[in-house]
Structures are given as structure tokens and as C-alpha cells.
Amino acid sequence: MSEAVARVLGDGGVLVAEAGTGVGKTFAYLVPALLSGLKIIVSTGTRHLQDQLFHRDLPRVKSCLKTSFNAALLKGRANYLCLHRLYKAEGETRNREQLSQLQTIKAWAGITRSGDIAELGDVPEDAPVWRRATSTAENCLGQECPEFNKCFLVKARRQAQQADVVVINHHLFFADMALKEEGFGEVLPAADAFILDEAHQLPETASRFFGQMLSHRQLGELAGDVTAAQLKEAADTPQLRALADALEQQLREFNLVLGRGGAAEERSAWYQLSRNPRVTDAFNELLRRMESLSGALQEMEERGDELEQCADRCGMFLRRLQLFRETPDDLVLWVETSRSGFSLHATPQEISGLFQQYMQSFNAAWVFTSATLSVAGSFEHFVLQLGLENPLIEAFDSPYDFQKQALLYLPPGMPEPNEPDFLDRFISMIRPVLAASKGRAFILFTSYRSLQYVAQYLRNNSEHPLFVQGDAPRSQLLDRFRESGSGVLLGTSSFWEGVDIKGEALSCVIIEKLPFAAPNDPVLQARLELLRKQGFNPFMHYQVPQAAIALKQGVGRLLRDPADSGVVVIADARLRTKPYGAVFLESLPPMPVTHDIVDVKNFFKI
Hints:
The protein has 606 residues and is α/β, with parallel strands linked by helices. Helices cover 50% and strands 14% of the residues.
């Protein structure tokens, strides 16, 4: 794999490299990257993997190669402390807990060199106070900021400009693309090569960033900032505050009409929601009040930096809101509702053309790598989604001996997943499996409802320590599971990938059913309809490949070390009863397959 990466870095072009578990893909691309002498950007799927790559993997490779290079870690702006916002929040906060947290942050601000909020363990990363102590692209004052010369984000970007290797994540990668699309300056420095790890995530992440989003919270924060700016820079114009108050009032009304979601987020197509006259009336009034506020801000923006910044934000938000009146053909308009409010989304039906434009804006080599890019040996699904032209394709199989180290159990007699007794039969099926494995299992679900149903049973009937998604932060759950030695962990989508538990603590992965995306998702519906119009079978062309890649990720949780062994259980009868089941089975590592629980018991006795 290193040789393939070195060729592309030297000659240019595009490499798509699937590297099975245990290949060591991080070292396989870092070694030729560091030896190449090129300016290289490495992007990975999450901030956690980004930190691991920068703080652990890069130093190890550097020490082995005995080479010198400058490396920089660059994250999105929400990961850096904003001193201006911190000082501002101090004077405006009345909440006792947040005031205490702000004092902790202020003390840390005096000693940190990076301003990366991941450094400060005393204030949780998801604490609401961070929204007040970090900036967004909309509320950043840029060079007009009184703290600009001390800005941690500016410092990080300057370091990235000067570095030989810059480690980023996919969110930042696409944020840069989105800024270029809107005509703003780029975030990322020019580079000779891009290496995109966990590349299977790129199409989904691209869809979010190539689209437009406007949330209840963004509009509420705008109204609050307008009020603060009016008091500071235009105290003689109370009508501006009245317009901000009117916007907040209409936000509450629109949220009420949409209906607050439950614990889970709910997605709805805009064309369906807008058939309701109450929704369209409330939306039109929201649009009218935004237009009034935008007009008033434009008249007063020269009176101060904060009013000018509010005027720019309001104009941008207004343009996003107007999309929902124009309903452009190439965008899917949809609404997400939850306990915290609503968000409006405009997502492209396809992203391949946009992605190609961005790639062509760089004179660079490209490497896309992941453990899960192919479906039944074919890379067509991944290549078409990103519109890659004539890539070099390489597959490097896992060095693990799946024939000896693993067993795939397909339990007989399971009903179809849509049958009413499926979950009860699933529970009956997993009981002897968990007894044989002595716990030490992940049970992966495709819905939170199914997870809760099974969790309720196991809480009352299982002798093994139980760890259920939602009971604690993900990192804590995983640590406790690892330490228990005989635990059973229940998780949904976020546990299907990016979890690395080595050793006997995880010896069994049980998958409830094939991970097809929710069929009522408005973006999925629109894409399937587009494929239908283009003459494709959308189920086989899109839904099956997507689900096969997700299944490979779930199965990939089992063997994480050469000494690992274990059993994969897939309870979905469609693997055997449907013609497309063969696609899923052909996409998995070459494990022996059994339908007999006795084989599972014997495997764990060895």
C-alpha cells in the first residue's frame, strides 16, 4: 500500500485504496507522505481520530524515519476558544453554573498555547457554555475583533500555512469547500497532495456541507446579538430591538406550528409540510420579519462593527430562508425537528459534480482510503458518488486469518425484520449466544426503539454488566465496557464504526438487522427518485451498496488485533431469503458460516 501511495504522490492522479483491518493503513500512507517532501493535507473522519493521528501516529513514524518536518493540527473554528466572546459572555451571563465554567475557561485561557477546547477536561466539550466562548463563521468579527492579534484560530491557520503536513478532519475539509462555493476565502492552505482516511464517510459528509442549513438556534442568537449591538451602538433606535423581539416571537410560533420532536430527531420533506396552511402562514410571517430586520440593519450597519456583523449575518440567513420559497430543482428541502427546536436544510440531490470541481481547483494528488470502500468486490458505488475520474484502484486484504479467527453465525428460523414477533425471537436467539460468549459482546441496532426494547429485557434478565447507548457519554461507556471484561454493550449507528476494542473484552458482535437507511428520509427519497428517472434500479444501485458498506463497518468491530478472535451474528433472515443477500455476504471477510448454535458454543470452548 505504501508503494501505491508513493506512486500517486510522485506521479499525480487519484488512488482509491481499500485496506482491511490490520493492514496498518495509517502508517502505509504516512511513511511515503513524510518521505515525499510534498506539502500534504491528511483528513480523517472525526476529531478523535484526528488527535490520535497527530499526537500518536505522526510522532511514531517521525521517530522511525528520523526525518524532520513541520506538522500542524487544524480543526474547525468551534474547537477554538474565542477570547472576545469569552469576555463578552462574562458580562452577560447570570447562570451560576455557566459563570463558574467561564471562570475555569478564563483561567485556562491564560496558560493554553493552542486554545483547543479539547485540552480543558474540566468543562465538558458538550457544555452549553462553549457556544458562548467560541465563535461561528456568522458571528466572528474577523480583523475588526479587538482580540484579533491573540486569536487562537488565526494562530492555528498560520501554523497550517507554514507546515509540511496538516492534519484536519472531513468537516473542516468540506467547510473549506463550502466557503469557496460562497465566494469567501479558503480555510485550508494550498497542498501538493490530499490523503483522505475513512473515505467511506465522504459522500454523506459532503451532502451536509454542500447544502444550506438554518437553525432555530442561529436565528435566536442573531436576535439576541442584534439586541446587544443596539444597546451598545444604537441606543437611540429602540425600533431595532422591537424588530429583534418580533423575530424571536415568530420563531416560537413557527416552532410551535412545526411541532416539537420527541427525544429523537424527526425529518420531514418541506413539500409535504408546506401543504399545511398553518405552516406556510407561519413561515411567510417569519420571512417577512427577517426582511424587516435585514432592511433596518442595513440602514444602521455603519454605526458600529457589531451592527455591521449582524447585518451581514441577517442577509445571509435571509437568503437561506428564501430558498424555501423558491424551491430550486437541484436541492432537497427538508426540516428537522427535535426538543431543541427546528433546522431547515437544503441538500443537493447529488454531490459528484461539486466534488469534482473542488478537486480540480487544486493541482494535487489524491488518496482515498478506508477499510470499507468496495461492495462485493466492486468500487463502483464509491467512485460514482464522488465522480472520481480514472482512479487507480487497489484492495489490500486484512492479514488476519478470518477462517481460523472468526465465525459467522446466521441463526435459522428467524422471521423477517418487519414481522411483529421479530424482536422477541431476536431476544430468544441471543440468550444462548451471550451465555456461550460469557457476555463480551456488542449488540448493534438500526433503531433506538429496538435497542430500548431489548435493553429493557436484558436489564431484568441478564447476568452480564449492561452498557446502553444514552446512559453515559460514548467514551465512558466504551471504557466501562472494556474494563468489565464480560459486558454487553447495546448501540445504534454511532457504535457501528470508529470503535476499537482489542482483546477478549469484545469477542462477539451481534447485528440485529441489515443497516438500510430509513426509507422515509427526505434526502434519500429524493435521490432514489432521481436514480429512477435516470433509468437505474435505486434499491440495487444505491440502497444495497450503502447498507453493505455500513454492515462491513459493524462486522469490522470484531477483530482489532492479530490475536483477536470471535463470532459475528447477523439475525436478518434476508441474507438467505432475498437475492440481494448474496451482495452482503460477498462483501464480508471470508469467514466460515454456520447455522448451528452448537458451532458457536464449540468456537468459544476452544
